[in-house]
Write a structure and sequence with these properties.
By secondary structure, the protein is α/β, with parallel strands linked by helices. It has helices spanning about 15-25, 40-45, 50-65, 80-105, 150-155, 160, 180-190, 210-220, 270-275, 310-325, 355-360, 375-380, 410-420, 425-430; strands at about 5-10, 30-35, 110, 115-120, 120-125, 130-135, 140-145, 155, 170-175, 195-200, 225-230, 230-235, 240-245, 250-255, 255-260, 265, 300, 340, 350, 365-370, 385-395, 400-405. The strands form 5 sheets. Strands 1, 2, 3, 4, 5, 6 and 17 form a 7-stranded mixed sheet that branches. Strands 8-15-9-10-11 form a 5-stranded parallel sheet. Strands 18-19-22-21-20 form a 5-stranded antiparallel sheet, with helices on both faces. The longest helix has 25 residues, at about 80-105. The protein is globular.
Amino acid sequence: MAKYDFDYFVIGAGSGGVRSARIAANHGARVAIAEERYLGGTCVNVGCVPKKLLSYAAHFAHDFEDAAGFGWTVGDRRHDWARLIANKNTEIERLNGIYRHLLEGAGCTLIEDRATLVDAHTVAVGDDRYTAETILIATGGWPTLPDQPGAREYGITSNEAFFLEEMPEHVVIAGGGYIAVEFAGIFNGLGANVCQLYRGPMFLRGFDDDVRETLAEEMSKAGIDLRFNTIIDRIEKTSDCLLAHLTDGSVIETGAVMFAIGRRPNTAGLGLEDVGVALNRKAAIIVDDRYRTSVPNICALGDVTDRINLTPVAIAEGHALADTLFGGTPRGVEYENVPSAVFSSPPVGSVGLTEAAARAKYGAVDIYRSSFRPMKHTLGGRDERTMMKLIVDRATDRVVGCHMVGLDAPEITQGVAVAMNCGATKAQFDRTIGIHPTAAEELVTMRTKAPEPVGEDA
């Protein structure tokens, strides 16, 4: 008889957990997966997927405005927020069903309840106990609210923003990461007055400076009120609105205050400390290069480890772990040149090193930068520009960074990421024939190096 009830018990049915469970089952393992909220995790339910749908909705406003330049007559228009949210919910329910079908089709035992650790090999779900040879923690992250007066009483996070019954006419967004700039574009595009606050001098910390500055300029052009070096001091509720008192002394009347100030690893109450799983100071699970925790048979991956918090990374990690444990092909994930996108307005695509990181790593680098008005806007009349940037290691001619702000930036960046992972050089970019007329051809036609920063060796 088997020593354990299951070979593999996965806690968390988000993207990483589901992929790992499915692949393990396909390798012949006896797999159980537990989820207390919704199948698909953050990405499917309150993250990537609904956010992209809302972003599409917001961009129709631009398309309607620009249509006249192409000969279209567009009549009166209005947006029905409730209908958008209802249609979004229907699509998410469809995806939940697909996840269920995938898990059950692979032969996984799906347990829809909260699971916690009892010991290194035992999981509790309600009154039931299950044993497993290996346990995977893939519980993701959860948005945080600050401790300022009124924040927890009246503030919302992205979780709640996806289910608002009405779209507020005025929104204050606190934060400067992906989620903050994306929702600023969404609410602005759908007609709200938006004020975005960030505690530092420029948002999107960690991105290339040209990306940050270009996006800030374009968002300001679109009418978003950006305020840097400013945060909310307290929130007060009146009979008909919220008052956001800021640290600069100003007060904003608003219909909603959304906090997008970061996400915490979802580790609380899982019993991790009781069984000896080590956490770092941010309560993220510490793992080695094969996703093993301080308890050898307990693994963790995805956002709960707080490393590269992107859905495709969690999926890759889940697949690699299942192959390692049950497929006879031990492997990890290559984290160099992981591309990312910000579905802001306009969107951002980025892969590889920023200019600052490249200079720190390689010393001498060549910078190729271009800014232009997209062809679509020449007739549409929109005052929006695209910025593209390549960073090249001068010693090897390898392209080590690519950054873009503008139409189709995420789609274009995905292809560049493939080239960079193949070690493409600038000379190989130059030899590639462009597709004309596209924005992407700019990446293979940029020939002029940007001047060296003052005070640095050429």
